[in-house]
Amino acid sequence: MQYSLGIDAGGTYTDAILVRDSDRSVVTSNKALTTYPDLIEGIKNAIDGIDEEYLEKVKLVSLSTTLATNTVLEDTGYPVGVILAGEHNVEKDFPTNDIIFVSGGHDHMGEEMAPLDIQAVKNFVLKVKDNISAFAVSSHFSIRNPEHELKIKELITQLAGKPVVCGHELSQEIGAYERSVTAYLNAQLLPVGKHFVNAIIAEMKRRNMDARLIMLKCDGSVVGIRDALEKPIETIFSGPAASLIGASYLTDLDTCAVIDVGGTSTDVSMLYQNVPDLSGAGAVVGGWQTRVKAIHMETSAMGGDSHIWTKDKKVFMGPRRVEPLCLAAVKYEGFLEKLNRVVVPSRRLFDENIQPTKFFVRTEHEIVDLNENEEMVLSVIGDEPVSFDEMSTRLKKPPSSFVLSSLIKKRLIQAIGFTPTDVLHVLGEYTEWNSDASKIGADLIAKMNNTGKYELSSSLKKRFARNMAFSLMSYLLPGVETTGIEKIVDGKFKAKFDVEIPVVLLGGPVIAYKDEIMSFINADIIVPDHAEVGNAAGALFGKGIKRLEIMIKPVSVHEPDRDFFVFSPDGRLKFDTYVQALSFANEHGRALTYSYMNECGVRNSNVNVTVTEKHVSPEGWHHPPMESKLTFVGVGMI
Q1: Measured distance CA(536)–CA(31) in Å, rounded
Q2: What is the pLDDT of residues 562-599, one digit of tens each?
Q3: Which residues of 290-311 are buried (b: 16+ CB within 10 A; e: fewer)?
Q4: Which residues sit opposite 612 in a β-bridge?
Q5: C-alpha closest to that of 123 among 77, 155, 163
Q6: Phi-psi region of 110 (alpha: psi -120 to 50; beta: other; left: phi over 0)
């Protein structure tokens, strides 16, 4: 008997799921808290819940992680030198100072615009090579002719022996600036990805797991380890992709909308005929527009761990994430008693950080760049949760809310507070941890808003469900005014949205929200078995998907019946006739697709390749097309 293991390291939880290969049935699963910044510990804890007898029979391990996303968002990647050749927009920001612009590049037909200034490249490489970990290279219109990028890459290899990422290797989309940023972000992730993958492989060996390792990409496809090591940027936002694939596996649906409730956010996305709905513009990571194909999703900053707080007799939810009171009462001895006798701060001081239900605990994150006030506040926060009143006593003055926010952003302290997870504990609809702590927190907030803890919790649960319904409809109705969507969701009209495709809920206790959501919209809402580990299932059942484009253009519009360029991911080739060019494009596109699938461990017999042709010609044109674009989509079962 053989098994496969799926692992999803999310922002709050790390999930593991074990599936029997013979019938693709779930054998067992486990959840553990994600460990930050070292995800490996959380992954180990999740795997610990799987019987060792099964693990030794695992033949495939598939991973979905937040590693790449977190590294970019927190700007903790390795230093990179950037070389840009040709007409790049020098007025736009770049995420590094180690950058040089040199002459070179090509035009849209792949013809050289200017000779490559190889001496300037050489001087720059020799200057920065000892201070950086990798190089990113992008040349103008390298998607039409990568000659200059390849020359620079060869020179860097000779002079520095450092990894080099070329823009044309990551994207065939137009946009020199976006390709440059994508290449840079990928280059800074190379050492991070290598360390992570090596640690996973070492852990597999320690557990006697002789298995193939693959990783989920942000477009819902999976890659072999070689591709994952070379293109780690493609694993950003793999969480939403995992939720789509997991929903499809757990429900056996090929078309559905998915609402994935995590600890920090709620994400909505869609699968149509087994293919994820992708964003046309590419992923935006940490404010940087990339050319990475990613899932199109609607995200709201409201998750199971969103902070619920009060001020001026109003109750707010989010956007920051905190550790739930119910969980803290299990983790920290004596926390329940401390919460029960907490001193309520002056209401005029109330804000997101100064709350009777909010506590702070120190993390193990590296301490860097603290000012005097931050050092002072951090000094009174230890390994056990402390309240605002306790900090005030130790400091002999109230701590600044601004300073507390700064320490949270620097990940030096973890906040604890009342959350939607606590709400469900109060209502008895989810009792994983300590419900008494949740009830105390609810009571404190309720009294300040002249209501009871159960009434407060019921209204907060309904608000959370309303947010899920609104996010879904905003996703399904692009371009429609959000105010109009809100009014219909909120019942301001004698009408109700009717969703035509099934809606799958994933995440911890999502079943608690099913009926509430249906009070806002008409929909077939499905909560599958193992919904709490849906993303781990998605990591495991992602298909091998390869998308690529090949373009054909006449060399000269004045002689449209002879000489044609074929632009492919491998570069530019010239053919005498259009028939020759089209035949090559078809054969080459299929060959590239099958080659990629083989690297992922997929046999040709398990790959289905579809080809779409689009031809552009002026009206009344009686020659071969002015432009032909062939799009190849290969789908393979891992």
Answers
A1: 10
A2: 999 999 988 899 999 999 999 999 999 999 999 888 87
A3: bbbbbbbbbbbebbbbbbbbbb
A4: 631
A5: 155
A6: left
Query: What is the distance in angstroms between the CA of the first residue and the CA of the last residue of the chain?
Result: 18
Give per-residue pLDDT as tens, 533-557. Answer: 888 888 887 777 778 889 999 999 8
Instruction: Give the closest residue to 384 by CA, choosing from 340, 444, 329.
Output: 329
Q: What is the 3-state secondary structure (H, E, C) of 270-324?
A: EEECCEECECCCCCEECCEECCCCCECCEEECCCCCEEEEEECCEEEEEEEECEE
Q: Are 160 and 173 in contact (CB under 8 A)?
A: no
Structure tokens at 444: 């404190």
Residue type, 49: G
Side-chain-side CA neighbours of residue 36 (13 Å): 21
Q: What is the per-residue pLDDT across 284-317, written as a single tens digit (0 to 9) for each? A: 766 677 777 778 888 787 888 889 999 999 999 9
* Nearest residue to 368 via CA among 407, 342, 401, 332: 407
The answer to whether the CB of 152 falls within 8 A of the CB of 116 is yes
Catalogue the long-range contacts made by 371-379 (C-beta closer than 8 Å, 24 or more residues apart): 373/400, 373/403, 374/403, 374/406, 374/407, 374/410, 377/403, 377/404, 377/407, 378/407, 378/412, 378/413
C-alpha 166/C-alpha 25 separation (Å) is 42
Cβ neighbours of residue 457 closer than 8 Å, sequence gap 6 or more:
423, 426, 427, 442
DSSP string spanning 597-617? HHHTT--GGGEEEEEEEEEE-
Whether pLDDT at 634 is above 90 = no
Both structure tokens of 532: 């709490």
The whole model's pTM is what? 0.76
Are 593 and 631 in contact, with CB atoms under 8 Å apart? no
Distance (Å, rounded) from C-alpha 567 to C-alpha 575? 11
Reported as half-sphere exposure (CB side, CA atoms, 13 A), residue 254 has a value of 4
